[in-house]
Write a structure and sequence with these properties.
globular; 482 residues; mainly alpha
């Protein structure tokens, strides 16, 4: 056993886990800063630096494109890209969290680092047990993050998130159990050699429900509306962006790799869920006047667009490599853009004093902070899929993938839904640019509230230029089954 341990230290297996070890060590270092009463700004910037260095380490590490530990992990470009995206989601909220986190900052930021450990492990996992453990470590950490704040709304949102999360966990465990009964293994790559069985169908249904809760897919979404609305703004941004993308990563890996031989069922289930999710989210958001809840329903609709990818691959299979590669590249690009346009939108609420912020509270923002108003407008236009933004290209390539796969009718439904969303996004923009300020003291307009929104908008536009690297992202699809 000792010989095997030291032989692993000199292998690619050990180097693949350097980022995880690095995160874990600094998680405890950040936690220990509470004993010396370190200023929370130092704690926050150290956390930001740790996440940034980890992302750089992962980016420059050479993928092995092979499984290890009996197929439990795979270190490939697919996992690398998603691990970096999720680390970026943590970096995005680290500094803005200073506004709402007043006590025990070392606990908040160390928990954020430990959550990132689970995210990185999940990105490289190919075994349902490992995925479950990593995913639950993230869930438990986000339960802690969502509980920060002493208001009744904070506690209510945290409790709803916790109880819904435990229900989702039960479904995931049932699904994992049925998967084992049908295959005799927890390894996702074995199902391609297994004949269809009732246990496999049950596993598919239970896992969709379990991970559907985590991703806020209709009709398993209501917890997200109340939780996003009730938690501190930076936590809402992290849950709506990073946590959702983690669930999306796992859905891609579980239902594309694990159920590759059961594509028909995957196709029908995800087509139905995607149509219901994006339609429901957009229609309800049309009548919502609470800004944070409107963004929450928008997040539900965005989940509907994201799960078009597993529906498409379930329909065309993995043999059509051109469509498959384009679909996976589109999913990765959409996830990256989504982090900034959705996370930045939630961080915009830091500029409002009203805890129960209404859309009308943004009236006349363009006259008081034109740069912030333009930046928020860009983020909303990106969510609506308007050209020149990264959000436009994200949706464009997802819809192009559907057309290339013969699902043009599904692309039309998605385009119609995207057009519906423009109405409620433009309503917010109208208040910012077309209305006079209702109150003179209802906003907090300083660098700490404005800069995260402006930076998010700048990156969202900048990512539209990076679309030229889409062929590079397509290589990530080739390692999905490694």
């Amino acid at each position: 056993m000792i010989d095997q341990f030291f032989s692993a230290l000199g292998s690619n297996i050990f180097y693949a886990f350097i980022p995880v070890i690095f995160l874990g060590i600094f998680g405890f270092i950040v936690l220990s800063l509470g004993f010396v009463n370190a200023p929370k700004k130092i704690v926050a910037w150290l956390t930001f630096a740790v996440l940034a260095v980890t992302a750089i380490l992962i980016y420059f590490m050479e993928p092995t494109n092979s499984t290890f530990y009996y197929g439990t992990f795979v270190f490939n470009k697919f996992g690398i890209y998603f691990a970096i995206i999720m680390l970026i989601s943590g970096m995005l909220v680290t500094i803005p969290a200073l506004i709402g986190i007043h006590q025990k900052s070392e606990i908040f930021y160390s928990t954020l680092i430990f959550v990132s450990v689970g995210m990185v492990i999940a990105a490289f996992s190919l075994n349902l047990i490992t995925i479950f453990i990593a995913f639950e470590s993230v869930s438990i950490g986000t339960y802690v993050l969502s509980s920060f704040g002493k208001s009744k709304r904070n506690l209510e949102g945290s409790i709803k998130y916790f109880f819904t999360g435990t229900i989702a966990t039960a479904f995931i465990l049932f699904g994992t159990s049925f998967f084992f009964l049908g295959t005799g293994s927890f390894n996702l790559s074995v199902l391609s050699a297994v004949k269809p069985a009732p246990e496999i169908t049950l596993a598919l249904i239970f896992l969709i429900i379990g991970f559907g809760f985590k991703m806020a897919i209709f009709p398993m979404h209501q917890w997200a509306i109340d939780t996003y609305d009730g938690t501190e703004n930076s936590v809402s941004a992290f849950l709506a962006a990073g946590s959702k993308i983690l669930a999306y990563l796992i859905i891609l890996r579980v239902f594309i790799v694990g159920f590759s031989s059961d594509g028909v069922d995957v196709y029908y289930l995800f087509v139905i869920l995607s149509i219901l999710t994006m339609t429901y989210g957009n229609i309800v958001a049309l009548s919502e006047t609470n800004l944070k809840r409107m963004l929450a329903y928008s997040s539900v609709a965005q989940a509907g667009y994201l799960i078009l990818i597993p529906a498409l691959i379930g329909a065309v299979g993995i043999s059509d490599t051109s469509v498959f590669n384009l679909a996976i590249a589109s999913a990765i690009y959409y996830s990256l853009v989504y982090i900034f346009m959705k996370g930045g939108s939630f961080l915009m609420i830091n500029t409002l004093k009203n805890e129960n912020a209404q859309i009308s509270d943004l009236s006349g923002l363009s006259k008081r902070a034109p740069g912030t108003a333009v930046s928020f407008a860009i983020l909303l236009l990106a969510l609506g899929g308007i050209p020149i933004t990264g959000g436009f290209f994200a949706k464009y390539f997802v819809f192009l993938s559907l057309v290339a796969g013969g699902l043009w009718w599904l692309a039309i439904i998605a385009i119609i839904n995207s057009a519906i969303s423009v109405f409620y996004y433009f309503r917010v923009i109208l208040y910012m640019f077309g209305k006079s300020p209702e109150k003179s003291d209802n906003m907090i307009l300083n660098a700490s509230t404005k800069v995260p929104v402006i930076v998010s908008a700048f990156i969202t536009v900048g990512l539209s230029i990076l679309i030229i690297y889409l062929p590079v992202l397509e290589t990530a699809a080739k390692g999905l089954f490694s």
